[in-house]
Every structure is written in C-alpha cells, then in structure tokens.
Specification:
Blueprint: H1 10-24, H2 31-38, H3 42-54, E1 58-61, E2 69-72, H4 74-79, E3 88-96, E4 101-102, E5 109-112, E6 125-130, E7 144-149, E8 159-163, E9 169-178, E10 181-185, E11 194-197, E12 202-211
Parallel strand pairs: 3-6
Antiparallel strand pairs: 1-2, 3-5, 4-9, 6-7, 7-12, 8-9, 8-12, 9-10, 10-11
Helix pairs in contact: 1-3, 2-3
C-alpha cells in the first residue's frame, strides 16, 4: 500500500503523516496537537480527519464530553510504514471509588501490551481510581481499572462503572438489582450501599480487570466483609 490514495489531497497526506509521527513517538494524537504542529486551523484539521476516516486510514471518534480519539487504522499503518498495530487502550482520567466525583473524559495517555495479561478488546479503556471504597477486592487509590463499554443490564454482583442521575459523576461499584431499584455497593464497610431507581442509573461499562500501582497500596489494613 502506498500513499497514492492521497495524491490529490496533499493536506490530508500531511495530516496522516503527522499522526504517524506522533503515534511512533508514543504521543497522544489530538486535534489541538495536530493543529499546532502543522500550523493549520483546527477546523481544517477536522475536515482532513473526517476525510481520512472516510478513506479508512484512521479511526476518528469523538463522544460527548470527551476529546477525540485519533488512531491510525490498519490501512493507515500500512500506508505510512508503521507496521502491524499493537492494541493500545486509552487512559481517560479518574473514576471515583468512594464518594462519586466527575470522571474527566479526556485521553491522558495510552497503555500497550495489556492483552498479554488481561482479556482486553479494542474499545476498552482505562480509568485511574480515586478513593478507597473498592479496596476489599484489591482495587486501591491510584490503580488503573480496565472498563469494557456496555449498554445491557449487568449481572447481579458485577462491578460496573455508572453515571449517577442528574450529575456528570461516574463511580465504580458492585451492581445488584432490587426490582425497580439498584443497589450500588462498595467493598469497604465505611461506605453504605447507594440505593437508586434503576431507570436513573446510566451504565458506562463493566470491570474487565485492574492494574495495581505499588505506591497505591499504602492504605490502612482492611479486612473485607463477607458477601
């Protein structure tokens, strides 16, 4: 595969090559970074990104309240000589494991080679844990949790990422359905379950696994409750 697909689109070629350069350097690719590096208005960069996406050379995804996710596709990696892709999961910021706080939806970096130790899929993402409500299952402040997006109802007892009603707050809790309500439970007796109407809770994903950070383990001893 050569760059002939972009022979009539030099600006798109320039953007694609800059994406490849940033990717090779291990940097997060953002519209702002491309605009600054290429001295190109962000609106023009976005047009190029949409065109490159239509040509299946990149993956360009932007959801509400989060920065765009820009990566080379397999075709794009071949076109720019990047070789085979390595699965990279975005780290999107923090999630509460205690009193719920806002989950900041921006990509702060990428983690690679997790598929060697966890059953990760394309589309999964990571969040950094704040708070100590899940230490009973070994999830400590500062750890990274791998989340798989989901829309369907979780199984009772699953650990899930949910948005709380009427607030942009995300929290990691154990899910239990109680007819028309749900109980969002912690793994720390200091935090009572949160009982909410099921229709008011927005499910963001389920826990796939987590990565412990050594320094995060400096927490008072805790004997987990039986369940």
């Amino acid at each position: 595969m050569t760059m002939t697909l972009l022979d009539d689109a030099p600006r798109q070629r320039t953007v694609l090559l800059e994406i490849a350069r940033l990717d090779k350097a291990g940097q997060v690719v953002t519209t702002e970074r491309l605009s600054s590096a290429l001295n190109m208005p962000r609106q023009n960069v976005r047009r190029c990104l949409l065109a490159l996406q239509d040509k299946h050379l990149i993956r360009y995804e932007a959801g509400e309240r989060q920065s765009a996710h820009i990566q080379l596709s397999g075709l794009g990696r071949g076109a720019t000589g990047q070789g085979a892709a390595v699965l990279r999961l975005p780290i999107l910021g923090d999630v509460a494991a205690g009193q719920p706080t806002v989950a900041e939806q921006f990509i702060e970096g990428y983690a690679t080679r997790l598929q060697d130790v966890l059953d990760v899929h394309d589309g999964d993402f990571l969040l950094r844990v704040r708070g100590d409500s899940m230490i009973g299952v070994g999830i400590y402040p500062g750890d990274l949790v791998v989340i798989r997006p989901m829309q369907e109802e979780p199984h009772s007892g699953e650990i899930v990422l949910v948005l709380l009603p009427d607030e942009e707050r995300a929290t990691l809790k154990r899910w239990h359905r109680l007819n028309g309500t749900v109980s969002l439970g912690s793994e720390n007796p200091q935090y009572p379950p949160m009982i909410l109407k099921a229709v008011d809770v927005q499910i963001q994903g389920c826990l796939v696994g987590h990565i412990g950070i050594g320094r995060a383990r400096r927490t008072p001893d805790y004997a987990p409750r039986g369940r």
